[in-house]
Amino acid sequence: MIEAWNLICLILGWILILIGSGFIFIGALGVLRMPDVFTRQHAAGLTDTLGSGFILGGFILQSGFSQTSLKLGLIFLFIYFTSPVAAHALAYAAYSRGQGTPPVEDRLKAKEKAASNTP
After folding, report:
1. pTM
2. Could you give the residue ranges of the DSSP H alpha helices within the chain?
3. CA angle 87, 93, 98 (to 5 degrees)
4. How does pLDDT run across 15-33, given as a tens digit for each residue?
5. Which burial class, exposed, middle or buried, applies to 95 when counting CB atoms under 10 A from its CB (0-12, 13-18, 19+)?
6. What is residue 67's three-state secondary structure?
C-alpha cells in the first residue's frame, strides 16, 4: 500500500512540475510577443507565480512529508507574497517614467495635479 502511495505522489509530482514548466514557458513567450511594457509585465507577473507554485507543489509531493517539504512550502509562501509586489513595483516604475501606452483614465496624474493646486 505504501509503495502505491509513493508511486501516486511521484506521478502527481511530475504532472505538477510539467504544468508549472508549461506556465513559465507560456509566460516567457508572452514576454517576447507582447507589444508594450505593461502587457509584457502582466504576462510575466501572472505566470511566474502560478508556474513556480505548481513546480514547488510537485517538489513537495515528491519529497514526501519531511523538513524539505516544509522548506519548499515556505519558499512558496515567499514567492506568493513577493512576486505580485515586485510586479506592481515594476509596473509603477515604468508608468512613472512614461513607458508604454497611457491608460484611458489617468487617476494618478489627476491626483498629483489636484495636490499641486492646493496651497
Report:
1. 0.78
2. 2-33, 37-63, 67-96, 107-117
3. 125
4. 999 999 999 999 999 889 9
5. middle
6. helix
Residue from 24, 21, 12 nearest 83 by CA? 24
State how far the Cα of 38 lies from the Cα of 87, in Å rounded to an integer.
10
- What is d(CA 76, CA 54) in angstroms, rounded to the nearest whole number? 9
CA nearest neighbour of 51 among 18, 89, 9: 18
Burial annotation 10-36 (CB, 10 A radius, 16+ → b, else e): eeebeebbebbeebbeebeebbeeeee
Q: What CA–CA distance (Å, rounded) separates 51 from 56?
A: 9
Q: Please give the Cα distance from 106 to 9 (Å, whole number).
A: 49
Terminal-residue alpha carbon distance, the chain: 76
- Given the C-alpha cell 504544468, which residue does it identify? 19
Tell the residue number behind the cell numbers 506521478, with chain if given: 11
